[in-house]
Design a protein that fits this description.
- The complex is a heterodimer of chains A (115) and B (113).
- Chain A has 115 residues and is mostly beta strands.
- In chain A, the strands form 2 sheets. In chain A, strands 2, 4, 5, 6, 9, 10 and 11 form a 7-stranded mixed beta sheet that branches.
- Chain B is an all-beta fold.
- Chain B is built from no helices and 11 strands.
- In chain B, strands 2, 4, 5, 9, 10 and 11 form a 6-stranded mixed beta sheet that branches. Chain B has a 5-stranded antiparallel beta sheet with strand order 1-3-8-7-6, with no helix packed on it.
- In chain B, a hairpin with a 3-residue loop joins strand 6 and strand 7.
- Chain B starts with a strand and ends with a strand.
- Classes of the chains: A mainly beta (115), B mainly beta (113).
- Chains A and B meet through strand 4, strand 5, strand 9 and strand 10 of A and strand 4, strand 5 and strand 10 of B.
Chain lengths: 115, 113
């Protein structure tokens, strides 16, 4: 019974390149959440998606960042033209979305380093 | 700023002692609270949750207390073990849970053998 999977676990990019982070939710989960964590800080909500729909993207920077959760395949967090300030750990979580209160199960994270 | 914050950034306890980690929140409309444990290099791991219609909930070696009057949340760990060393986050869910979890800054727990 696999948990939430994220890949790659570590990603190094030079300034100006694109970063693509992938998240496969737990089996049966249709809700996906992305969070960003800077060192020694808590997780900051970025975006909440259901299959083929963005429900809340209030935590996403207005430029360069986008997220999708297609009908088939993993959820993708895409960062275009990365800058050093994008260096962080990015965590994905999933939940079944069947009840009012849904425990979110977190993946191991992708650590992005921008050189 | 964040709705959820912590009183103590670090806590050092002796193995076998009880640990208490505190958290304050400011959004009186929050109705679902969660404690997460995060070990180095890993994602947050769910420990225990509590709804706003409760003031106490117990798990295995852990207890969460919720005081809505003063908007305070605490996590008690009984007989703390070296494996409990981690960063602990309190978090609140807006709009009934399962949605946009707001995390506090975290408390680092050191367990001395």
């Amino acid at each position: 019974n696999a948990g939430v999977m994220q890949n790659p676990r570590h990603l190094v990019r030079r300034r100006g390149q694109e970063a693509r982070l992938r998240c496969s939710p737990m089996k049966g989960h249709s809700h996906v959440y992305w969070y960003r964590q800077l060192p020694e800080e808590g997780l900051k909500f970025m975006v909440y998606l259901q299959k083929e729909n963005i429900i809340d993207e209030s935590g996403m920077p207005k430029e360069r960042f986008s997220a999708e959760f297609p009908k088939e395949g993993p959820s993708i967090l895409r960062i275009q033209q990365v800058v050093r300030g994008d260096s962080a750990a990015y965590f994905c979580a999933s939940s079944p979305g069947l009840a009012d209160y849904n425990e979110q199960f977190f993946g191991p994270g992708t650590r992005l380093t921008v050189l | 700023g964040e709705n959820v914050g912590l009183h103590l950034p670090t806590l050092s306890v002796q193995e076998g002692d009880n640990s208490i980690i505190n958290c304050a929140y400011s959004n009186s409309a929050s109705d679902y609270f969660i404690w997460y444990k995060q070990e180095s290099g890993k994602g947050p791991q769910f420990i225990i949750d509590i709804r706003s219609n409760m003031d106490k909930r117990q798990g295995q070696r852990v207890t969460v207390l919720l005081n809505k009057t003063v908007k305070h949340l605490s996590l008690q760990i009984a007989a703390t073990q070296p494996g409990d060393s981690a960063v602990y986050f309190c978090a609140e869910n807006e709009e009934g849970g399962g949605f946009k979890t707001i995390f506090g800054a975290g408390t680092r727990l050191f367990v001395k053998a």
